[in-house]
Amino acid sequence: MVGSSSERVTIVGGGAAGAECAARLRMADFAGEITILSADVHPPYELPSLSKGYLSGASGYDEVLLRPVSAYTEHDIDLQLNTRVKSIDTARHEVRLDDGRVLSYSKLVLATGGRPRPLLVPGAADSAHVFYLRTLNDADRLRSVITPTSSIAVIGGGYLGLEVASVARSMGAAVTVLEGLPRLLSRVTSPPVSEFFARLHRTEGVDLRLEAKVERIEDTPDGRVTIHLGDDAPIRADLVFASIGLLPSVQLGIAAGLEAENGIRVDEYGQTSVPDVYAAGDCTSHPDAQDGGFRRLESLPNAMETAATVAASIVGNPAPYVAVPWFWSEQYDVKLQTVGVYKQGDDAVVRGDERSGEPFSVFYLRGGEVRAADVISSPRDFAAAKTLVARRVAASAADLADRRVPLKALLRATAAVPSA
Amino acid sequence: MTSTSCNPERGTDVPKVTLHYPNGEVRTLSVDNGQSVMKAATANMVPGIIGECGGELTCATCHVFVEPEWLDRLPGQEQEEVDMLDLTSEEPTECSRLSCQIVMSPDLDGLVVRLPKTQR
């Protein structure tokens, strides 16, 4: 057993990061009390499924739960749902709840995640037809309004918006995607990948509008909604799905005096600027082990790995968080797997033909090294890409682009170099 | 090695899977019929099987080595799983499977798998 039984770890947030942190503590034989305070009414679930299998109906409720609710009881984890934290007193080691209770902690973990960035154009806040997606209840609401005969306007062409567009379109709904910038996914990937997804959605029948200027949203008496666009004709739809980014939930931490900038600032061990307070998941700004500086990531792997880092620190077995980020998306029958973080200015090398409809990959070279990759529907290439990126293999654009040169040969060429 | 027919656990409602750890530790898990070995491992909070993608055949962090006598009795492998086995942290062998794809059935009661030293 690790830790005395009088120790109490209190975790604020019942998403994947909070749940994984609790599980990792028990796996490490932590003997103290563990409490998860979750504002959600459901036990911790898989967020990525909400815009994929759960929204389409392919996965049911039990399948999206990370663990059955009994697992928490069996491992003596006090999972308190529908419970909101009002404030944290780091000097007294106490959290105050909305219902007036005060709980003490020896170690506190903030795994507060984030909330959808609200659409701020006139009419949006008052509309009965604007939907967001972050919680399972959000997904249930969205699922109840997307039908084969409904029309949906997706505002924001990032992965979340495109996944919802794909599910809605696959159900038969009429889908318009409105993206303000000149290409889809511009924050996270290169032009060839953006163009691939634009073609994919258009081929599937999505009305994709780039450089769309959403000016105003108006509910109409017929129970529908009108989206007014700058110079273009307005769009009529049954509902608007807004996916314009995530705001990390940092207010509690900031009010408690924690350092924060685009997320709660943590070191490579998940420790915040205040002793005995840690943070994990989407709400954190953590050291970027690959490129220096700090970064915030929104992904399940990041949530799980940062949570594991925090748990290791708490049980006195600290190990720095150095994992290379990775991510995946599913749209129609296409699976995208990404490793590393694409940066503007990277040299994008396409392997295969992104116009052919066949699997292809895009490798990102920075300073002559493979630093990131987007792999479309080719798990085998992803396996090689993960290693190429982790080892920062120096490769030529010509070799990467040439399908006759096996990716594994590029790995072997650098086999003497220790892995990162 | 225990054969299915003389497994003392056989006949109980919930099938069992035995995990052998590289350090010699042995743990036995109950896995509901229809549940994957990966899901059972995460639900039981046992170390060694991560399941970072939740069973979407995307992360290869639920790699196990199946004891040879059980291999033929397992559900078949999709090409996607074969491809993903390229991604495991520890070198795969002919006995490698992703435990998110091993869905429990009464026939698999008593299944024995060995865990790799690392999953990522």
Structural description of this entry:
The complex is a heterodimer of chains A (420) and B (120). With 420 residues, chain A is an alpha/beta fold. Chain A has 3 domains: 8-115 and 246-315, FAD/NAD(P)-binding domain (3-Layer(bba) Sandwich), CATH 3.50.50; 130-242, FAD/NAD(P)-binding domain, CATH 3.50.50.60; 333-411, FAD/NAD-linked reductase, C-terminal dimerisation domain (Enolase-like, domain 1), CATH 3.30.390.30. Chain A has helices spanning 16-27, 47-50, 53-56, 61-64, 69-74, 136-145, 159-171, 191-203, 251-255, 300-314, 379-390, 397-401, 407-412, and strands at 8-12, 33-37, 77-80, 85-89, 94-97, 102-104, 107-110, 114-116, 130-131, 151-155, 174-178, 207-209, 214-219, 225-229, 235-237, 239-242, 246-248, 264-265, 277-279, 284-287, 294-295, 326-331, 334-339, 347-351, 360-366, 369-376. In chain A, helix 1 (16-27) runs parallel beside helix 10 (300-314). By secondary structure, chain B is α+β, with helices and mostly antiparallel strands. Chain B has a single domain (10-114), classed as Ubiquitin-like (UB roll) (Roll), CATH 3.10.20.30. Chain B has helices spanning 37-43, 68-71, 79-84; strands at 16-20, 26-30, 63-66, 96-98, 111-114. Chain B has a 5-stranded mixed beta sheet with strand order 2-1-5-3-4. Chain B is globular. The chains are: A alpha/beta (420), B alpha+beta (120). At the A-B interface, helix 1, helix 10, strand 22 and helix 11 of A face helix 3 of B. Chain A: Keywords: FAD, Flavoprotein, Oxidoreductase. Chain A: It comes from Actinomadura physcomitrii. Chain A: Its cofactor is FAD. Chain A: Residues 8-306 form the FAD/NAD(P)-binding domain.
